[in-house]
Amino acid sequence: MLLVVLFFFLFMLLGMPVVFAIAISGFLFFLQHPEIPITTPIQLPLTQNINFALLAIPLFITAGNMMNYTGITKRLIDLSVVLVGHLRGGLAQVTCILSALMGGVSGSAIADAAMEARMLGPEMIKRGLPKGYAAGALVYSSLEVPTIPPSIGLVLFGTIAQVSIGRLFAGGIVPGLLIMTFLMITVAITARIRNFAPLREKRASIGEIGSSFIKSIWAIIFPVILIVGLRGGLFTPSEVGALCVVYALFVGIFAYRELNFKNFIEALRGSAIDIGATMSLIAFSNIFSYGIVWEKIPEIISSWILGITNNPYVFYLILIVLLLIAGFFIDATVLILMLTAIFFPIAMRLGIDPVHFGLIFVIACAVGNFTPPVGAAMYAVCTILDVSLEEYIRESWPFLLAVVLAIITLVFFPDLVLFIPNLIFGK
Amino acid sequence: MKNFKRFLMLGLLVLLLLAVPLSAQTRQFVLKFNHVLSPLDPYHEGFLKWAKAVEERTKGGLKIEVYHSAQLGVEEDILEQIRQGANVGQNTDAARMAMYVPEIGVMNCPYFVDSPEEVAKLKKMPTVHNWLKTLEEKYGFKVLSFTWIQGFRHFMTNKPIKKPEDLKGLRIRTPGTPVWQESIRALGATPVAIAFGDIYPALQQKAIDGVELVYNNIPGMRLYEVLKYVNETRHILLINFEVVSAKWFRSLPPTYQKILEEECDKAGLETTKVVFQKEEEVKKMIQEKGMIIVPTKDIDLEAFKKAGEKAYEVLKVKEVKDRIWKEMRKK
Amino acid sequence: MRKIYEILGKIELYVAEVLLILIVVLVFSAGVSRTLKNPIYWANPLASFFFAWATMFAMDAAYRRDKLMNVDFLVKRFPQKIQSYIKIFNYLVILAFLIFLIVFGVKLAFIQRYRTFEGMYGFSYMWATLSIPVGSLLLSITTLVKIIDEITNLRRWRKELCS
Ligand code: NA
Ligand code: NA
Question: Where would you find this protein in the cell (chain A) (predicted)?
């Protein structure tokens, strides 16, 4: 297994697409174990590809892409500007709010960061925010998207660990808003120190906010419909995914009337490409995980950690530090796929609530998308805004700090996570 | 160009390295045994006991590692690995074996056997013997034992079930194999194929109305949180098959083969006893948690048996059943 | 040749899109029909089956457009020529792996011809297994084209350097 890990990093550093790096290094394990049928590395990705629970992911991706063509995004931007445009740092505050709103219709941080960078990024720079700072705000606020339902990361975690996806989704609402609040405070403080200007002169009137709110209502009630669908027991997560696509089409065709056939095809095409990139990674990383279980590595790591401590807080501390370090080099999806099987059983042994653990774990993994040198959301935004990594690192650390503080707050106050799921689904 | 050649050489060297298995082979035999049940299930402890006995008797020459909760993979995938000669084993059922030898499906049909004693008789029968031989020679499965009995399957629902009509329109989870689906359909319910691990969320989300499982499945899956009634329909006495690869089995020294089989039978008989004892504890526990048991005496078993006949017809195993029942002197 | 490659790309994307629509329709109607207490038991398994094929086609579509995530902060620091060599090395390793998937994927499909696809009676699992070798074939064609492109690049640079 050591050889497998070494080659994984070698292939990755050589710039091989991660899906092949992980599949081929994982494949080496089978060459070392001739007693396992050599056809197993073919079976493993296939098993993931026909896993009905994972079908939720391509469906959420499709729904998210459709939403971008329905006019929902445009209205949410307007609403965000009306809500916080008068604050110092203007558009940096807008991106914090916008990600929370977008969080309710989209499930991927990378997609959100890229989209907002295209829509808000140039304007942010034009209005005097330093490039690196703008990138930092765009990237870190996208953490709200996989935290607030729907969330691809939570579906993955729930499927691997067999934790109710409905509960996980419900558990993400408050943490998402908490992260938003922490980031907005960070923007407020840094904007005051550095004297950034607001976007608009004065606070919007109640009437203005109200009308903007009503225009966006179709997006805002979306997560509500989602959780009611799961809670009401009408649908499984995958079916909710299909429902989301139908809902997006409905809003695009009948409510906002901005979706036409051409847009539809474009959204479908974009979704197919996104699905190819995401699902192939999920499928082929199963080859890699096989060796981890075969060599009983979860048990080894588990007895090692349990040998150090029986205290859930110390465990969380070790976990978060490990995930943040691993996140420098490995992206969120891969982290979730590789590490859930290792850490979830330990959390259960320590009596931690599965939903609480799931949220902390998925959020901490997602930070891996934002930190250099390897981070997909960071790459996307820095490429679009033409920001150098040095600039990004120099300007974005306060946001990293804010996000880590938010995670620590969630660790110490589990009710922030569990309050809503217990309310909706019962204890 | 010179550079390019040197580069190619390096590439080839790495590829060569990749192709050579790097770990040294040891002479110790290892069996990786997979099951889908929780570590709390009496079966898990039973398999661990079997592993310990085999390791002791072979003085560490044959080691069994037990993987619970389907850690090694999906049951059907493992079965295919076994066929290809892997050193893995799986706890499986007659319905899955019937995908290869259809007649075996008869063991998984409603009310086929009524007691563990009848199961013990089965293994001595020529018909059954032939099945095992086909499994071994044509499909590469070595069945170590089927003394492992998981108890009677009962319908567990949110309304009392006393006759087949009560099941009408209820979506009951079953494994995905045709035999299961037809058996449950014959008894009056609508079968829905869902993986074992997805049962709890499916019930919670009301994607299904009930399950048909054994008592001992209840605590591990916390079914008392989502279901109200256990209706003791006893429709299937669940016989498990412990299978390994025939090819791997033949690679073992004959003494090891004998020990592996003997200890498997022995552990199976012991575990079956534990299973029935544990059921009594579970019954008490779930009643305390608020579940209601509809006992067999309140259920129209004759009607259920009659309904179950249909499964034998649909699956075309009626003739097999008659033959075996005759051999067993059972009506 | 290029032309065929491009037509192939169009077809695979088109198929992936159609499968995606079918998946949405199937899963949605499975949910609705179940809520109406009259489940279509084959809808979800069929959707899973399409999903297997859609993923492989979509994967190649993403690969063609270089949309598969990769890490290039280290490689980017090397001179162009070395970058090209590294890319060719990567593609050769990938190609070897894909050939393995094709050969043994076909073999596995054959081995699994007895296996039933869960939830669909009489439907062989083999048809799902074939998605891996077929997808890998598409991916290996793409890889070959990428290798050819990279070699062409190298040649061009050399010419520019000489002239
Ligand atoms: Na944002
Ligand atoms: Na979201």
Answer: Cell inner membrane
Distance CA B136, CA B143 (A): 8
CA-CA distances (angstroms) from residue B110 to B123, B181, B199? 19, 11, 22
Residue range(s) defining the domain that contains residue B182: 29-328
Interface test with B, best of C85, C124, C125 (most B CBs within 10 A): C85
Q: Is residue B12 part of a domain?
A: no
Q: SS3 breakdown of chain B: % helix, strand, coil, rounded to 5?
A: 50, 20, 30
Say whether the peptide bond before residue A373 is cis (omega within 30 degrees of 0). Answer: yes
Q: Does A294 touch chain C if contact means CB atoms closer than 8 Å?
A: no
User: Which residue from B minimizes the CA distance to A287?
Assistant: B73
Task: Return the DSSP state at A255.
Answer: I
Residue type at C118 in one-letter notation: E
Selection from A12, A34, A32 nearest residue A23 by Cα: A12
Residue A43 and residue A45: Cα distance in Å, rounded? 6
* Nearest of A36, A124, A111 to residue A80 by alpha carbon: A124
Question: DSSP state, B10?
Answer: H
SS3 B52: helix
What confidence category does residue B26 fall into, taking pLDDT thresholds of 50, 70 and 90? very low
Answer left, alpha or beta for residue A240, where phi above 0 means left and psi between -120 and 50 means alpha.
Answer: alpha
Q: What angle do CA A413, A418, A420 make, to 5 degrees?
A: 125
How far apart are the C-alpha atoms of A191 and A195, rounded to whole Å? 5
* A123 CA → ligand 2 middle, Å: 25
Asked if B73 has any chain A CB less than 8 Å from its own CB, the reply is yes
pTM score: 0.84
Structure-token match 């095409």, residue found: A269
- In terms of C-beta density within 10 A (0-12 exposed, 13-18 middle, 19 or more buried), how is residue B284 classed? exposed
* Cβ contacts from A onto B, under 8 A: 68
Residue bearing tokens 């590490």: A339
Q: Which amino acid is at B234?
A: R
Q: Which residues contact B99 (CB under 8 A, 6 or more apart)?
A: B177, B178, C114, C115, C116
Tell me which DSSP letter residue B12 carries: H
Chain C residues near residue B192 by CB distance under 8 angstroms: 39, 41
Do the domain assignments include residue B10?
Answer: no
Quote the CA–CA distance of A138 and A396 in Å, as a whole number.
Answer: 10
Least confident segment among A113-127, B196-210, B211-225, C48-62: B196-210
Q: Which two tokens stand for residue C106?
A: 């076909």
CB-based contact, C28 to chain A, within 8 Å: yes
CB atoms closer than 10 angstroms to residue A203: 15
Residues 6+ apart with CB under 8 A from A12: A18, A21, A329, A374, C70, C71
User: What's the complex ipTM?
Assistant: 0.82
Task: For A118-136, write each residue's pLDDT tens digit.
Answer: 889 988 998 889 999 999 9
C118 CB neighbours in chain B (<8 A) are 76, 176-177, 193
Q: B72 with B88: CB under 8 angstroms?
A: yes
Interface of B with C (CB under 8 A): 3-4, 7, 11, 14-15, 76, 80, 83-84, 99-100, 139, 169, 171, 176-178, 181, 190-193, 207
**Rounded CA separation A396/A391 (Å):** 8
Q: Within a domain: residue B59?
A: yes
Overall number of domains in chain C: 1
Decide if B218 is inside a domain.
yes
Determine contact: A14 vs chain C, CB below 8 A.
yes
Q: Which residues neighbour C127 within 8 Å (Cβ) at sequence distance 6 or greater?
A: C49, C117
- Count of CB atoms situated within 10 Å of the CB of A32: 15
Domain count, chain B: 1
pLDDT per residue as tens digits for the range C68-124: 988 888 888 899 899 999 999 999 999 999 999 999 999 999 988 888 887 777 789
